[in-house]
Design brief:
Layout lengths: L1 H9 L9 H35 L8 H4 L1 H24 L1 H20 L4 H30 L4 H8 L1 H20 L4 H4 L1 H15 L13 H24 L5 H21 L15 H21 L1 H8 L5 H25 L9 H12 L11 H16 L2 H10 L6 H30 L3 H9 L6 H4 L3 H33 L17 H6 L1 H5 L3
């Protein structure tokens, strides 16, 4: 009992208002997170460009192949995230954050130097190894700095990169591709990365590593390869076009078996690589389920919109970026409001309205054609953004708010792994569906090229034939949006179970009984 009281007294006390010290820390995190998120949205708008640059009419690149530039990045993210919670405690969040930014920046420079598509995909893996640590580390740093009573407002601040990414990413990417070259969508990370490293070194407070916690080597050997193999199999579906291909089902099966073995193993050591005991927290469990379905549907479909504008409507990369920007504008309006509300109102009274906005906004996209009025699409994206702003950060906050101070790093690791798996599954599913429903690849490649070269039109059978192919392509995009919309409808089931009463926040409280029994050295460490 005395040890427990002593530990509780060591927990930090947090002021009610957001002070300058916390904002300085938030600035570092935002700069790092916005770099990694901008990179994702910039690459999204560049996928058709990669098809043109690395493919040809004689040897076209399938959309599912170039989508690996996104999938490989998220695959690397999911692989490295399990190590982040342990490494943050072992080496300190400040040191690890700087290492992550350095690795991400170096990977960006290598991506810019890629000579062919498979080389670019390989360098995106290296980039993802750094990027995978940025978000969970940022969430850990922010959560520890904020405390429970300010977490909603601080998580809304962390949501700024998620707002600016959908707004600025496609616009910056489109402008750079049109006025410079695709290489600059990666080179732009060099000055931002260097500035972030210097800022982090000066602004982040030093934190004490926790060398007493042993590393779960067996857990790492089971979970990281298991995640990588499973997501590799899922991500290979678009390229192979079927689950029956050995590369798909063998990878998924071996990966699933390794992950099941990890689940069995994770309840044995005191400090597992991924602490599944946290699922005893009902709010965390519901948040993880909702976030998985939301991320798979929302971010999987997020790839489709700029591609639709460029390939079906013949817009430039810059125009496509400007046309999808209203989605980020909508989120910008609701996310700060939701961040303030979640500190006072149960998440079960906020998130359902966000989901309603996303469902209402996405439904018009399920009716999209090759001739849909732009104002209808832009309005739909704006409403989707409104819903996203009232959904994403409240879900993160609800998941973390009831965790103890010692559980935060492990909780953010669990949440981010879930998010990356959901994103990878969503991108893979949407890519394979779109690829299978689009016209045959060689014909479709020629149709897309006809926007810039009208001489190709007669070779395809005339304008009527081209219009018919474009109509089929519009139907393919609409059908894919239907799948995303259905996933969001399914997510309404766990959304309805979210708490409607305000839970007791325990981030600043002492350890749980389990932690006291499992970590006697922590309780007895002198101040």
């Amino acid at each position: 009992m005395a040890d427990t009281q002593h530990t509780a007294q060591q927990q930090p006390e947090y002021p009610e208002n957001i002070d300058a010290a916390v904002l300085k820390i938030a600035g570092v995190v935002i700069l790092g997170v916005i770099m990694s998120i901008l990179d994702i949205t910039v690459v999204n708008v560049a996928l058709p460009t990669f098809q043109e640059e690395f493919g040809s009419a004689r040897d076209p690149l399938a959309y599912s192949h170039v989508a690996w530039t996104v999938t490989a990045y998220t695959l690397a993210l999911a692989t490295v995230i399990p190590l982040t919670g342990w490494a943050a405690d072992r080496f300190g969040t400040k040191r690890l954050f700087i290492v992550a930014i350095t690795l991400f920046t170096a990977g960006s420079v290598l991506c810019a130097a890629a000579q062919e598509i498979n080389q670019l995909i390989a360098f995106r893996v290296l980039q993802g190894l750094g990027g995978g640590m940025i978000m969970p580390l940022g969430m850990t740093i922010m959560t520890r700095a904020a405390g429970p009573n300010r977490m909603g407002r601080l998580m809304a601040v962390l949501g700024i990169p998620m707002l600016l990414g959908p707004i600025l990413g496609p616009i910056i990417g489109g402008w750079l591709i049109e006025n410079a070259s695709w290489h600059w969508i990666f080179l732009i990370n060099l000055p931002i990365g260097l500035a972030t490293i210097v800022y982090a070194w000066l602004a982040l407070p030093g934190d004490r590593p926790e060398p007493s916690e042993s590393f779960d080597f067996l857990g790492m050997l089971l979970l990281s390869p298991g995640l990588a193999l499973f997501l590799f199999g899922v991500s290979s579906i678009p390229e192979k076009g079927t689950v029956a291909d050995p590369r798909v089902w063998v990878s998924m099966l071996v990966g699933a078996l390794l992950m099941l073995a990890f689940v069995w193993h994770s309840f044995r050591p005191a400090h597992p690589l991924l602490d599944l005991r946290l699922f005893r927290n009902r709010n965390l469990t519901l948040s993880v389920i909702v976030m998985f379905l939301f991320v798979a549907a929302f971010f999987g479909s997020l790839l489709l919109v700029p591609t639709y504008f460029q390939q079906v409507r013949g817009e430039s990369t810059l125009s496509a970026g400007l046309l999808v920007a209203p989605q980020g504008v909508g989120a910008m309006l609701t996310m700060p409001i939701a961040g303030r509300l979640v500190d006072r109102i149960p998440v079960g009274r906020i998130v359902p309205f966000g989901f309603l906005g996303i469902l209402v906004g996405m439904f018009p996209l399920t009716q999209i054609t090759s001739e849909t009025d732009y104002w209808k699409i832009v309005l739909a994206l704006f409403v989707m953004g409104l819903g996203m702003g009232a959904t994403m950060m409240p879900m993160f906050t609800a998941a973390l708010k009831t965790l103890s101070h010692q559980e935060v790093a492990r909780g953010t690791t669990l949440i981010n792994i879930n998010q990356q798996i959901g994103s990878s599954v969503g991108v893979a599913v949407m890519s394979v569906l779109l690829t299978n429903w689009l016209p045959p690849q060689r014909i479709w490649y020629a149709v897309v090229g006809s926007w810039d070269n009208p001489e190709i039109v007669p070779q395809l059978g005339g304008q009527r034939a081209v219009d018919a192919l474009l109509a089929d392509a519009g139907d393919a995009f609409a059908s894919t949006f239907w799948v995303a919309w259905a996933l969001l409808v399914v997510a309404l089931i766990p959304v309805a179970m979210l708490p409607r009463r305000r839970p007791a926040a325990v981030v600043a409280a002492g350890p749980t009984e389990a932690e006291v029994s499992e970590e006697p050295s922590e309780a007895r460490r002198p101040s």
